[in-house]
């Protein structure tokens, strides 16, 4: 498929992020295409979560330019940023749910903030989102502390899609889940992406998840996006961390398990 500028829903150019004297990103570039699932990988502390936070405007970079839907995230006036923010949803690593609200109330929270809906309609719509992520009916009125880790992640996902976003950002969605729970979450990501036409930007360490979901992978190393491409293309990248990650025993196991049964 030919890659045109119009396909790029996120464009990051020359990003520099520092905390004190610690430079996390130094001239990082990345494009995300509309409708793709892109997995962001890299060693611990390479700045994957910081990149996500910078793209959604929660963290101000020291330099560089970030555009989402063609609009600068950094220089957009408050009201326009509010409008822009409605077009994406974020699921943070721990779900970041409000502990004093039930699952349904958590999903209602962004609706309350952004949409003028009467109470019944808001409750109904929030209930639909909770069902969409595969949570049982009785989870609606539970508090986050009453849920398993996997259910909390699903609740976080339901909240991320509360406003019918075009992009969802997922920070390590399968971290902490057992392999069966992680595989079920991968299926959920894929199904919702296809059903809702979402663009998915997800940070992960999980090779199985990359194999199951990703159209492309972006590798963060040496303070930049060192390589971006398909899983197959990553096998050709000559960089010690990339080789170790994509050719190591865990990678081989993930390739094996992602092959259709009976394939050589
Ligand atoms: N608010 C902050 N203040 C100071 N340093 C920070 C802050 N947020 C992140 N950092 C530092 O920036 C670097 C990148 O952090 P980030 O959380 O993005 O890493 P990561 O690639 O997501 O790592 P992991 O895979 O371990 O989650 C780390 O060294 C971290 O300590």
TrEMBL record:
Keyword Transport found: yes
Keyword Ribosomal protein: no
Pfam family, any one: ABC_tran
ABC transporter domain boundaries: 10-247
A GO term, aspect molecular function: ATP binding
Gene3D superfamilies associated with the record: P-loop containing nucleotide triphosphate hydrolases
Stored PROSITE patterns: ABC_TRANSPORTER_1, ABC_TRANSPORTER_2
Designated name of the protein: ATP-binding cassette domain-containing protein
Biological classification of the source: Bacteria, Pseudomonadati, Pseudomonadota, Alphaproteobacteria, Rhodobacterales
């Amino acid at each position: 498929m030919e890659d045109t500028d119009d396909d790029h829903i996120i464009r990051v150019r020359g990003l520099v992020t520092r905390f004190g004297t610690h430079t996390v990103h130094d001239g990082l570039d990345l494009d995300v295409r509309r409708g793709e699932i892109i997995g962001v990988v890299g060693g611990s502390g390479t700045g994957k979560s910081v990149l996500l936070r910078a793209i959604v405007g929660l963290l101000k970079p020291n330099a560089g330019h970030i555009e989402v839907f063609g609009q600068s995230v950094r220089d957009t006036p408050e009201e326009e940023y509010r409008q822009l923010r409605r077009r994406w949803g974020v699921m943070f690593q721990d779900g970041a749910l409000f502990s004093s609200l039930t699952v349904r109330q958590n999903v209602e929270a962004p609706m309350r903030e952004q949409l003028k809906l009467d109470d019944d309609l808001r409750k109904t719509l929030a209930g639909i989102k909770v069902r969409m992520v595969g949570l049982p009916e009785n989870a609606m009125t539970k508090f986050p502390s009453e849920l398993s880790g996997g259910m909390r992640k699903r609740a976080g996902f339901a909240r991320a899609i509360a406003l019918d976003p075009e992009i969802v950002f997922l920070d390590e969605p399968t971290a902490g889940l057992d392999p069966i729970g992680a595989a079920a979450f991968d299926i959920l990501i894929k199904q919702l992406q296809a059903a809702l036409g979402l663009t998915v930007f997800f940070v992960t360490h999980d090779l199985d998840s990359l194999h199951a979901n990703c159209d492309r992978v972006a590798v963060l190393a040496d303070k930049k996006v060192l390589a971006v491409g398909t899983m197959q293309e990553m096998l050709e990248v000559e960089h010690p961390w990339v080789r170790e990650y994509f050719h190591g025993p865990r990678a081989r196991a993930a390739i094996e398990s992602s092959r259709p049964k009976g394939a050589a």
